[in-house]
Structure formats: structure tokens, C-alpha cells
Amino acid sequence: MAENRSSTLKSLTTPRAAAAAGVAFAVLFGANLILIRSSLPEGAQPGSQWLDAASGKMKIAAILMPFAGISFLWFIGVVRDGLGRLEDRFFSTVFLGSGLLFLAMMFVTSAIGAGLSASNAALAHNTAGYTDVATFGQMVVLTLSKTYALRMAAVFMISLATIWLRTGLMPRWLVYVSYLLAVALLIASDVSMWLTLGFPVWVLIVSLLLLARAGVFDALREEHKL
């Protein structure tokens, strides 16, 4: 009896846990992206952004990123656990691998930004030589976030949407929206860094749906008790 009760409670609380982790990731990662993007305004001389007070935003982004990463890992783990016996090894491998690659690249992006900001403070007396390094760092940050990490996020969305399409675990409209947004990110990821915000918005939508379903499960449980 105790074992059956534990299994039932796990199946009921998992969607709520996934939703909480996804909402936390969406908020923290969205704030992280806004801080990074506002630190690299368009039209400014390459490398000059790291030499002003705005570079402090990168330090805040570096502080937020680990917490966003923890939330994203929890989101991946709980969503994958929810697939249960319906899990397809091929698509689950792509889903897990692309998610981890995306997260690793964003960690590197935040670390480089924080390192350049710290170097700016340490080498304030030698800005001439530092500008070249800052320019290189800025190009690495933009390339990692816009070209590589964003495309891994798109692969993450496509693989998960395909799993939902084949299992029917999520509504069809969400599957189609996921495909459209993922294709847009794959094709236009280099157009603007603001497009990266589409990924945390998508995670937020998925999390809210999971949270709503958790409420339905709770209502069914109360009705069953009655």
C-alpha cells in the first residue's frame, strides 16, 4: 500500500515540479539574455562595450546563469521522467544532448563576459591593449549565443515536439508552434540576438501548460477522495 501510494504521489507531483523549474528557468534566463544584449548595443564600436559601466551587467548575468542552468537541468530531467515507457531512445538522446550542449554554451558565454568585465577592472590603466581582447571576446560571445547555442535550442525544441507528436502527451497546437519557432530560430538566429528570447518564452508556455495539468490532476484526486 505504501509503495503504491508513493508511486501515485510521484506521478501527481512531477508535472508541478517541472512547471516550477521551467518558470524559474524562463525568468532567470530571460533576464540573463536581456543583460547580455543590453551590454552589447548595436552600432557601438566592437569591444568598446566592455570598457564602460555597462560591463557590470555581465557580472550580474554570470551570477544568474548558474541558477538558470540548475532550473533547466531539473526541467529536462522531470520532462524526460514524465515520458516514462513512451520514451523513444533516438529522439530522447537528441533531446537530452541538444539541451546539455545549449546549456554548456550559455555557461561559456556568461563566463567569457564575466572574465572580460573583470579584466577591464584589473587593466583599467591599459585600455589600449585590452580593446583588442575585448573585441575578440565580444565576437565569441555573440557567435556562441546566436549561432551555436540558439540552434541547439532549436534542435531541443524540434526533438521534444516530435516526441509529443508521436505520444500525444501535449496538445497539437503546441507541437506546431514549437516546430515553427524552432525553424525560425534555425534560419534567422544570426539576425538579432533578441530572437534568443523566443526559447525561454517557449519553455514558459510549456511550463504553464504542465502547471495547468497538475491542477487538473489535483482536482481529479480530490474528486476521487470524495
From TrEMBL:
This is DUF4386 domain-containing protein. It comes from Mycolicibacterium crocinum. It comes from the Bacteria. The keyword Transmembrane applies. Keywords: Membrane, Transmembrane, Transmembrane helix. The chain crosses the membrane at residues 20-40, 60-79, 91-116, 148-166, 173-195, 201-220. The keyword Transmembrane helix applies.
